Amino acid sequence: MPPPSGRDADVVIVGAGIAGASAAYFLAPHASVILLEREEQPGYHTTGRSAALFAESYGNATVRALTRASRAFFTTPPAGFSSAALLAPRGHLIFSRADQKPQLDAATADIEATGTRLERLTGTQVRALVPALHESHAHAGALDPGAQDVDVHALLHGFLRGARAQGVRVHTNAALQAAEFSGRRWRLATTAGEFSAGILVNAGGAWADEVARASGVSALGLSPLRRTVIVFDSARHTGAQTWPMSVSADESLYFRPEAGGFLASPADETPSPPCDAQPEELDIALVIDRLQTATTFDIRRVRAKWAGLRTFAADRSLIAGFDMHQRAFFWLAGQGGYGIQTAPAMGILAAAVIGGKETPRALAEQDLEADGLAPRRFTITGVANKAV
Ligand SMILES: Cc1cc2nc3c(=O)[nH]c(=O)nc-3n(C[C@H](O)[C@H](O)[C@H](O)COP(=O)(O)OP(=O)(O)OC[C@H]3O[C@@H](n4cnc5c(N)ncnc54)[C@H](O)[C@@H]3O)c2cc1C
Question: What percent of the chain has pLDDT over 90?
Answer without folding.
Answer: 93
